[in-house]
Write a structure and sequence with these properties.
The protein has six helices and seven strands, in the order αββαβαβαβαβαβ. By secondary structure, the protein is of the alpha/beta class. Strand 6, helix 6 and strand 7 form a beta-alpha-beta unit. Bound molecules: 2-acetamido-2-deoxy-beta-D-glucopyranose.
C-alpha cells in the first residue's frame, strides 16, 4: 500500500505524456497514385441556378466511347467536398476505387462525380457530408436513389458552432426527417467516419449518428 501511490503517480504521468505526444504528433498519411492521367469533365446539371457551382465527372486515361460509357450495372458515386475543399479531392478515392475494381475484374465499374463550389469558403451548414445527410429533407429528393451514404468527419449531430437560428432549425429538420422517413430510408446504409481524437474542428461526438438503432448505420 505504501509503495502503491508513487507507482500509480508514475503510471498516470506516463499515460498523460503518451496521450499528449500522440495528440500533438503530425497527422501521418500515405499518398495515393493514379496510373493514368486525370480528366475532370464538366457535367451539365439541369436546373443549376448558381453558375459557379459545377459538377465534374472524373475519368482516367483517354476519353473514348469505352471509358465514357456508363452501363446499367455500373455504380455512380457522388463526392461532395467539405468547407474550403475542391472537386479535385475526389481523385484519391476515385483512383483507388477504379484501380481496385479494374484489377480484380469486377463485373461493374464505378463512375465518380464531384461537386465543386468554386473553392468558396462555405460556412456552417454547407459542410459536404452534412449536405448529403440532409438530402432526404428536400421535398423533391427521391430517397430510393440513396443506397449508401459515406460521410467523412461531417458534423451530423450538431454544428461545431451554432451561428444563427436558421442553422439550429436546419439541424432539427434534418434529424426529424431521418426519424420520419424510417420506411423510405430502410435500405439506405449510412457510414459516418470521424477524424478521431486529433480532429479538433469536428470532434467525434459531432460526427456521431444519433439514431443508430433505427437504421443501417455505422459510426467509425
Ligand atoms: C493499379 O495499381 C497498380 C499498382 O498498385 C498498378 O500497377 C496498375 O497499373 C494500376 N492499374 C490501373 C488500371 O490503374
Amino acid at each position: 500500500m505504501y509503495y502503491a501511490s508513487p507507482v500509480f503517480a508514475v503510471l498516470l504521468l506516463f499515460t498523460i505524456y503518451a496521450v499528449h505526444k500522440d495528440i500533438h504528433s503530425d497527422n501521418g498519411c500515405k499518398m495515393t497514385y493514379m496510373w493514368r492521367w486525370i480528366n475532370l469533365l464538366p457535367f451539365e446539371v439541369e436546373g443549376n441556378l448558381i453558375s459557379k457551382y459545377y459538377l465534374y465527372r472524373y475519368v482516367e486515361g483517354p476519353l473514348n466511347e469505352r471509358t465514357l460509357q456508363i452501363l446499367p450495372n455500373d455504380i455512380p458515386v457522388l463526392f461532395v467536398p467539405g468547407s474550403g475543399g475542391s472537386a479535385k479531392q475526389v481523385r484519391s478515392m476515385a483512383s483507388i476505387m477504379m484501380n481496385k475494381t479494374e484489377m480484380r475484374n469486377a463485373p461493374f465499374r464505378m463512375h465518380f462525380f464531384a461537386v465543386d463550389f468554386a473553392e468558396l469558403i462555405l460556412v456552417g451548414h454547407s459542410f459536404g457530408g452534412t449536405i448529403v445527410y440532409s438530402l432526404p429533407a428536400h421535398p423533391e429528393f427521391d430517397t430510393s436513389m440513396m443506397d449508401l451514404v459515406i460521410t467523412l468527419a461531417a458534423p451530423l449531430s450538431a454544428p461545431p458552432i451554432v451561428m444563427d437560428k436558421s442553422m439550429a432549425e436546419f439541424y432539427n429538420s434534418m434529424d426529424q426527417i431521418w426519424h420520419l422517413q424510417i420506411d423510405e430510408l430502410k435500405s439506405t446504409a449510412l457510414v459516418s467516419y470521424s477524424g478521431g481524437e486529433k480532429d479538433f474542428q469536428v470532434p467525434d461526438h459531432l460526427a456521431a449518428i444519433t439514431h443508430s438503432k433505427t437504421f443501417n448505420t455505422y459510426y467509425v
